[in-house]
Amino acid sequence: MGHEYQKSLQKIQIFLLLLNIQSFVVQGFALRDCRISLNVSICDSGNLAQVPTDIPPTVRGIDLTGNKISKIQVTNFINFPNVTELKLGNNQISSIEKGAFSHLISLRKLVLNRNKLTTLVNGVFDGLGNLTELLITYNHITIIEPNAFRPLRKLKVLNFSGNKVSTTEQLSLIIKHTPHLNDLTIRSIRMSSFRSSEFANKSTELRLLDISDNPLKFFQITTNAFPNLTWLNIGNPPQKLIMLWDIPDKAMVARVDTLDISRLQVNSSQKMWDLLSTFNTSLTSLRVDSARCNLATLINKSCSIPTVSTLQLRQNNLPHIRSRLFSSCSNITEIDLSICGIKGIANDSFMPLSRLEILRLFRNKLTEVPQAIRTILSLKELDLRNNSIENLGCYDFANLVYLKQLSLQWNKITSLQKCVFQNLPRLQVLELHRNFLAKLNNAFQTSLPSLKVLRLFNNSLATIKKEEFRGLPALENLTLAQNNIHILEKGCFSGLKSLLNLQLDENDIRSDTLDGCFKGLVNLRKLSIGKNRITYTTSSPLKNPPFLYLSSLENLDFRSQHIRGKGALPSNLLEGLTNLTALDFDNINIVDIPEIFFNYTPKLDSLDLSANDLMDFSPYVFAPIRNLTKLRVTSTNLRALDFLINAKLKKLDFLQARKNAFSVITEDIIKAIPSIRYVDFQYNSFTCNCDSMDFINWILTNNHTQVFDAYNFKCYYPPQKKNTKLLDLNVQSCIVDYAFICFVSTTCFNLVFMIIVFIYHFMRFQIAYAYYLLLAWLLNTKHKNRKAPNQYDAFVSYNVHDEAWVYRELVPHLENDQGWKLCLHHRDFAPGRPIVENITDAIYGSRKTLCVISRRYLQSEWCSKEMQVASFRLFDERKDVLILVFLEDIPSAHLTPYHRMRRVLKSQTYLSWPGTGPETQLFWEKLRKALTCTESKAADRLLLTVTDEE
Predict the structure, then answer these.
(1) How far is CA 689 from CA 38, 525, 680, 721, 944, in A?
(2) What's the pLDDT at 41?
(3) Which helix (H) or strand (E) holds 561?
(4) What structural domains and CATH numbers belong to the chain?
(5) Nearest C-alpha neighbor of 165 from the set 152, 181, 149, 150
(6) Would you say the pTM of this structure is higher than 0.85?
């Protein structure tokens, strides 16, 4: 028995445990200081002093960047088994408890940048056996305990920059426990020397080592501690220091292919090119920004390394490039000469660069495209950004038949010539934005058969002429935003059959300019035409809808039209957009939407109507777009969201309705959007009473929808609760506990039922008698003051089984012999009247009531009523009106259930029928006297003996 009890107890405990787990899992997404985006909890309010406790355990990422958290505790992350990325950067974390991350078994990336950590104690990373990336830059770490990194066996990327661990001895503790480390960055840690011997006998897969921005005075690699190293950065010392280096065996760095020695200065007894020669067996990319040696010699020595193909020489003082500067660089494929103050380039300076594919001349002082560029026949990418080029000539890019990308933005170009881009058959990307272009001069009518991207935004273009881009058959992206365009000639985009993305936002385009301008853009997917002056004054259909030919368009950005007054939407404005999925109508000054407006966009998935004065609109507007999943109605002055009830947007999963005028979210509204996953109701005027009960309960209990910033929703009504928090409202008083009501009702019903059964079983005769007694009393009360004349001498009350005696004995003697007038119910009751009224009228309409008593009489329902009415008249009127005639000898004990009968027998005249014999004459004589005597004389009673055993 005890064993069975123990098993039952265990089952109950397991059930309660599962119940607790379930209650935790289904908690809602109304987070106090966070939001969920792409399954990542983002808590960037900037005010958090500790890790929130209401983050759902199902998230895969947690971002707590930029708060005021000072301590990480063991309990902070115990319920996040699926989190793979945790960001704790830019806080005030000074301590992390041992095992604080031990429950993050799936964590892959941990960010602790820019905090106040000083020590990494043993156990700080316990449980992070799957961590592959750790960023812990710019703290104040000075101590790393011996086993701090022991759990990080799978770590591949570590950035430890900006700390104060300045010795390789402590850094070796990291390498010791991270055998799979690929990428180690330890910049700006005040390291003055680096010796590979400190990392000896450490199993490592290190490929990238960045120890730049350190005051290195000594760099030594004398052991094969980094056999897989391919990327090494030892440049950019914070001050002018002379570094001694010691690499006696080139085999120690035999695999390094990328080297950065920017701003590095070596001892006078050592030469920079001697350092370079150490890496010449594998080096392919060399970066020497701000070289502190003879640049020409450096370039010559660098280019003499046969494997070098990329040379980055930024921020060097090189105002003029001479003819023979690159004479040894025939193997170079990429040169970066950005920010070198270049003003001029000798025409033949690039001729030796027969294999050059990428040339970067970003942010120099060139006023024209250098002629030297024409000699680089192999060039594929040319960057001339941020110079002072004013004009482009017809031959500036001559012979560049392999050029794929040309960057000319941030110059001072005012116009183009028709011939400027000729002979560029492979050009795919052309960037001309942020210049002063006012005219294109048919520059793109010349064939650029491969051009896919053309950026012309932020210029001074005013007119786009007919067939302006007809020479661009492969163009996919055209950006004309941020110009002064106010004229789009018909057919201005003709020939752009491959165009997918067209940006015309932030211009001066008006509605009449759109007539027919998009014809021919049969494959256009995205059109941005916001921040113009497109406006309509009526909802009447347009004769020529502007988007009629854009049947492939999927995304239309029409936002923020600069208009005065209130605009309207023509009912057929969207005609032709049969494949449109996203529409942005933010801030276009409309006050209404025609009911048939979306008939032309059956595939619409995302709609933005924010910043309009809609107030309210018909829910039938949404009838053609029932597949809508995203809706934004922020700042639309909506007084209610009732339109959602009839809109039937069953697939809606994103709703943003900030800054409106509604105060209550009803249960019907919630039920109308069953698929909703994210809602934003910030800055509305919520009512804090029982009307908001359903909304509050939904916020706190739903496990499907994230209600953004719900804990900061404020009350505005009633006045006494203004500025209190909506979720602080106690709604318990609003709840009708139907379960409790059902319990009470059922309990009462069962009790009443049991009482009735008990009474029926033990007291049914007494109850029946009491019922008739009550009924008789009611009838007596009704008739006792009635002064009706006596129509009969006596009313005869008898049972039907005694009818033979009444008609054979009683009626002949009393009516025929003695002349009395009797009232008999079979003969004298008025047909059609209720029987109770007949009985009452008969008793009160007769001088006497004569009851013929037998056992059958006592069992008769109607006889009992007649007896009760008569007895009421007897006792209440104090009149001698009742005569009892017993046809049978009935013992007093048998009269016990009939209390009224026993009471009458004790105080009233009664006669017994003697049967046959001489006594019958005496019986009739006494009955005559009883009928004759006055009603008030109680002393004139005739008392005959009946059996009474009391």
Answers:
(1) 34, 48, 21, 9, 81
(2) 86
(3) none
(4) 760-940 (3.40.50.10140)
(5) 149
(6) no
